[in-house]
Amino acid sequence: MSMKLLFKQRIFSWFDSYDIYDEEGNNLFTVKGELSWGHCLHIMNSVGEHIATVKEVVLTFLPKFELYVGQQYIGCISKEFSLFTPRYNIDCNGWHVDGNFMEWDYRILSGDQVVAMVSKQLFHWSDTYVIEVSDPRDALMALMLVLAIDAEKCSRD
User: Which InterPro entries match (predicted)?
Assistant: First the structure.
């Protein structure tokens, strides 16, 4: 049974701030950025409890983000050098990410199995993504990867 997450960036906020909803419009997660050297994004559940962090590692040749669930380090995602198609290396879960040339659509894969499909919706005031997760248990990890990729794109632009 798949699950869709609607990922919307808040327009008027000083730092990165996002709301993540399910298909019925229920708030599942809130993401708040922190003033720091590089991006640092804290993920809260629907009742405001801190559950995860995505933190940029600074002073690296290619962008790299560490992933934490609670206070425990679970791995990182780093951008790989490629000419036409954005590619990312994930050092946990055996997952990898492939995206199209315009960088608006991604697939998160485990081997050949699709874990999540990510697409950017155009014509919105702020960044808006739909994350379709094959297994709802993977929703938090998929969200963390999308946040890291979005932060990397924002830094580049």
Answer: LOR, LOR_sf, Tubby-like_C
Say if CB 43 and CB 140 are below 8 A apart. Answer: yes
42 residue type, one letter: H
Residue 57 covered by a domain:
yes
Alpha-carbon distance of 65 to 74, in angstroms, equals 11
Q: Is residue 16 part of a domain?
A: yes
Q: Note whether residue 97 is domain-resident.
A: no
Q: How many domains does the chain have?
A: 1
* R_g of the chain, CA atoms, integer Å: 14
Element (H, E) at 154: helix 139-156
Residue 157: the pLDDT is 47
Ranges of beta strands (E only) in 25-156 are 27-33, 40-45, 50-57, 64-69, 72-80, 87-90, 95-99, 105-110, 113-120, 128-133
Contact by Cβ (8 Å): 85, 100: yes
Chunk the chain into consecutive blocks of 10 residues (it has 157) and report each block's average pLDDT, rounded to whole numbers. 84 69 93 83 96 90 90 91 76 84 78 92 70 95 90 66
pLDDT at residue number 144? 94
